[in-house]
Amino acid sequence: MRIFEISRSQVSEHASLAPLAVPGACAAASYLWISLTRDEFRAAQPEVQQILQTLCQTQLVDLHVADLLNDQLPSHYDYTSQYDVLVFRRLATGNGQDSAEPSPSPPQRPSRGGPPVLRRIDTRPVGFAVFDRVLLSVHPEDGTVRDAFAARLLAAASSDDRGTPALDVRATSARLPASPADLMLRIVNLIVDGYLDMRRELTKQLDHWQTELIDPRSRFTNWSALMEARQSLHRLDEICEDQRAAMQDWIDSLETLPVPQGETAQRERDLIMVRSRDVLEHIQRVVHHVHRLEQNAETAVQMHFSVQGHRANDIMRVLTVLTAIFLPLNLIAGIFGMNFEFIPLVHKADGFWIAMSAMLVIAVLLVLIFWRKRYLARTR
To answer: Which domain holds residue 315?
Structure first.
């Protein structure tokens, strides 16, 4: 469990929740980020509910608690009149630490084949409960996203700039999050960046397979890995579509809120909208790239079979040409092989050489004709 108290100018980390449950322990101008793993949230649930009651005068409803503890839930968004809940699936670590998390999950599936990047297309949900003064995030057991963003947060606190707030996300990326919603969007953006990094590795692997599939001199044998890749891409497409739907629901919910009063509140609201649309645009980029990779994989397979068909046509064309060349030669040999007593050239001393010369001339003429018509040319 990691607990951060965040204000506009500083970030402080607390060791436990108990001191913060006292009224007035948390400054009015700051908010809390309570980050737990699922096991920690399951054990500390009464304490977390007490903190929420103290700071926000409300508690998580039972259904949302169950959603945050569910390891199989897809990405989705829900809300109440006092808080929002967003579940967002992130990439699991490659060492399988997430799989050690106890949950009512089905039996462990066999490990995926193919390149290592495909084995990484396994996800675990990260749950967020966004209150006015508290961000509650529930992570898988390894907590890599939490620790990575906590390091960024502490680094930003040590080098916080002193300029005026801006609406550009890139210009404010080094500032401390102004609200729990702002903090949640930054963490979600970090999760989406993991998908963007993985797509580059997938592109390199599929490009390598395309080269092998199209090369007429190579015999592609890695069909099982290619089928795994296509299934993984389809699964990744479904995950990203759920993410996009959840983020779009979040944006739609923000647009229905009343217009805030005051320039500062309006600026913060605009910043939240800009960050939300930026995250949605990143997700759409991943979805678009996954669709393109699926099309490239399908096109590569079709081109492979097309190349194989051309190779078969080349072989059949050569065999047909050879058959056409030897057909008249077989005809001549068959005529002179008939059991008749009187056949021209049979009883002549040079009859054999005349027949062989005629057969050779016919064969050379047919080869020249077929070569000129490019029947013997190889398709590259």
So the answer is: 310-372
